[in-house]
Amino acid sequence: MKESASLRAFSRQRSVARKLALQALYRWQINECPWQDLVQEFATAEDMPRADRDYFRELLEAICASRETLDAQLAPLIDRTPALLDPVEHAALLIGLYELAHRPEVPYRVAINEAVALTKRFGATDGHKYVNAVLDRAARQLRSDEL
Q1: Where are the domains of the chain?
Q2: What is the Cα–Cα distance from 4 to 55, expressed in whole angstroms?
Q3: What percent of the chain has pLDDT over 90?
Q4: Rounded distance between C-alpha atoms, residue 144 and residue 142, angstroms
Q5: Helix or strand holding residue 108 (H, E)
Q6: String of b and e for 103-116 (b: at least 16 CB within 10 Å)?
Q7: CATH 1.10.940.10 for the 2-142 domain, yes or no
Q8: Most buried by CB count within 10 Å: which residue of 40, 78, 108, 127?
């Protein structure tokens, strides 16, 4: 019991980190700045005490540093250029794709479900369906051993 409770707490902390990362990446797309500025800006966010701070920082650092590579990986999976994506959908796709490509300990279903949930919460009405379809295609390429 104790182990499953701590696993649930860990999962919640990761979910909050992803939520804050989505918000920070959205802001970064609107007004680009160094990722360190985003970490500092979001350090006092209301939800930060409930987040996995290290994971939040990792997501921002890695995604900001490799955005061109991630966008190049996204390009064949989407029906428009990454620059034309809705910023919320783009941020969710970047997070999901990063996790699929670089965090093998995160199950592919978790990476997809978290990105879809964030898009449902913050994105356009049917944006979550698009994010789900794109990340499903990415998972088939990047995590075929798990499917």
Answers
A1: 2-142
A2: 20
A3: 94
A4: 6
A5: helix 108-122
A6: eeebebebbbebbb
A7: yes
A8: 108
Q: Which pLDDT tens digit goes with each residue over 98-121?
A: 999 999 999 999 999 999 999 999
- CA proximity to 54, closest of 90, 119, 103: 103
Contact 139, 77 (CB under 8 A): no
Alpha-carbon span 57 to 36, nearest angstrom: 8
DSSP assignment, residue 84?
A: G
Apex 143 CA angle, 142 and 146, nearest 5: 175
CA 139 to chain centre: 14
Tell whether the model's pLDDT for residue 3 goes beyond 70: no
Residue 1 predicted with pLDDT over 90: no
CB atoms within 10 A of CB 64: 19
Looking at residue 106, its pLDDT comes to 96
User: What torsion, rounded to 10 degrees, do the Cα atoms 21, 49, 8, 129 define?
Assistant: -30
CB-CB contact of 55 with 111 (8 Å): no
For 64-101, how does the pLDDT look when each residue is reduced to its tens digit (9 = 90+)?
999 999 999 999 999 999 999 999 999 999 999 999 99
